[in-house]
Specification:
The chain has a six-stranded antiparallel barrel with strand order 7-8-9-12-11-10. Strands 4-3-2-5-6 form a five-stranded antiparallel sheet. The radius of gyration is 31 Å and the shape is elongated. The chain has three domains: 146 residues, no CATH class; 124 residues; 132 residues, Nucleic acid-binding proteins (OB fold (Dihydrolipoamide Acetyltransferase, E2P)). 46% of the residues lie in helices and 16% in strands. Helix 3 packs antiparallel against helix 4 and helix 4 packs antiparallel against helix 5. The protein has 446 residues and is an alpha+beta fold. It has ten helices and twelve strands.
Length: 446
């Protein structure tokens, strides 16, 4: 059933702003990324191939000829692989850089000298990375297509209203990203410091040949040529059989196996745990700030649309002629823009009091959309509040294209076209306007 949208005052609509018709909106919706570019395909493909490659990769034993040590290249590969599982789904911009970097590491570091099974698994990883890179490219190309369609449909550009406060989305991710990246950098420096200290001890140490007499969970007990029995820490005690010969490095009270240099695994793990979310937060913040600056720096496309807010607080945007609210074009989280701090405090207090007395307003409202909508974009909407007064709202979350069959969470008010609150004169007048358009049916109706 069609609703009568809450009208927006004509003075709030920039001159020459066209309506976004359902026909033009349908073309915009069809410009979304192709189905094969959906992360539900690229993310599992990469995860499965990485697990396969790790499972079949041979694990070399530690020995004096081939000591085990900190593997910074392997840490970088693992970090990029884990990060890409998230970036494929949310950050195609970062995927375009990370996927080729990981592919190069796999091609030059893992394929040479690998056995047949390991080579097959690594080639599968390369295929998954290529597929994910192509999917990210298609997602970004779809955004460009949608921007061009909106710009062509709008025809005219307008600046944001003076009442629109500066868009600050991205500040918190930027701050968090910088802190986490600093922690990751500190962990790397501490790991390198530990490696250098170990190398200095090893350069001064005496090389002692010893025989393994016992293996513990994280130690081995050895007997030296002068019949001393000493216990040495070992990360891989299973690599040293009882009766085998090992070399022990000893520098005063410091000693270790020659086959096991200092392993900065703990610092590497901290670097990954802080660096991956830090890089993600940093990228999200930079993209949000760049889009916010572009939105305010120059005139942007403007279109007349319809919008409503559901019970989850999400804003849903419809074509200007979709008065039934049947086909949502996109959804996002929005908040009112209040330039003055005192006004913001007063408005929040007033809205808090109103929310205690009035139900959630899920009615369709006429609005002016400022900016080109696409997945992850920044937008400003000029719309009306519960009383029909013009307000300016802006996105505080990424614009999302609704999944097939996804509908806003609405109550009986929006679903039936009736309004249970008839004590409000403005709502009563709205109901009267709708009732005046209804024809007799010959039977009782609500």
């Amino acid at each position: 059933m069609s609703e009568t949208p809450v009208p927006i005052p004509s003075g709030s609509v920039p001159a020459g702003t066209p309506a976004w018709s359902s026909t033009d909106a349908a073309l915009w919706a069809r410009a979304r990324p192709a189905s094969w570019a959906n992360p539900v395909w690229s993310v599992p493909a990469l995860l499965i191939t990485i697990v396969w490659a790790i499972a079949v990769e041979p694990v070399p034993s530690c020995s004096d000829a081939a000591p085990c040590g900190p593997d910074w290249g392997g840490m970088a590969e693992m970090g990029l692989a884990v990060g890409l599982l998230y970036w494929l789904a949310r950050l195609p911009e970062l995927t375009l850089i990370a996927a080729p970097a990981l592919a190069a590491m796999v091609a030059w570091g893992e394929l040479p000298g690998a056995d047949r099974m390991s080579q097959a698994a690594n080639f599968a990883v390369l295929g998954a990375l290529g597929f994910g890179w192509a999917a990210a490219l298609e997602q970004l190309a779809a955004r460009s297509r949608q921007r061009r369609l909106v710009e062509r449909t709008a025809g005219v550009r307008h600046r944001l209203p003076e009442s629109a406060s500066p868009l600050v989305r991205g500040t918190l991710p930027l701050a968090a990203g910088l802190v986490l990246c600093a922690v990751a950098a500190g962990a790397v420096l501490l790991g390198l410091s530990g490696i250098h200290a170990d190398e200095r001890h090893a350069d001064r140490a005496v090389h002692i040949t010893a025989t393994v007499t016992h293996r513990g969970e994280e130690t081995v007990r050895v007997r030296t040529a002068d019949q001393r029995r000493i216990t040495v820490d070992a990360f891989y005690p299973e690599d040293y059989g009882v009766g085998s010969t090992v070399t022990v490095l000893e520098d005063g009270s410091w000693r270790r196996l020659a086959a096991e240099p200092y392993d900065a695994f703990g610092w590497q793990l901290l670097a990954l745990a802080a660096g991956l979310p830090g890089l993600s937060f940093l990228t999200v913040g930079l993209l949000a700030r760049r889009r916010a600056v572009a939105l305010r720096r120059a005139p942007v496309p403007a279109l007349r649309v319809l919008e409503r807010t559901d019970f989850e607080g999400r804003t849903w945007v419809y074509a200007a002629d979709d008065t039934a609210g049947q086909t949502a074009l996109f959804t996002c989280l929005c908040t009112a823009t209040l330039p003055d701090d005192d006004e913001r405090v007063d408005r929040i207090e007033d809205e808090a009091e109103e929310e205690e007395e009035l139900p959630v307003d899920t009615w369709l409202h006429e609005a002016v959309l400022l900016g080109a909508p696409y997945e992850g974009g920044e937008l400003v909407l000029v719309t009306t509040d519960r009383a029909g007064d013009p307000i300016v709202i802006r996105t505080v979350g990424r614009v999302r294209l609704p999944r097939t069959g996804k509908k806003p969470l609405l109550g009986a008010t929006a679903l039936t076209g009736t309004d249970p609150d008839t004590s409000d004169p403005q709502r009563r007048a709205r109901i009267d306007r709708i009732a005046a358009t209804l024809a007799p049916t010959g039977r009782p109706v609500r």
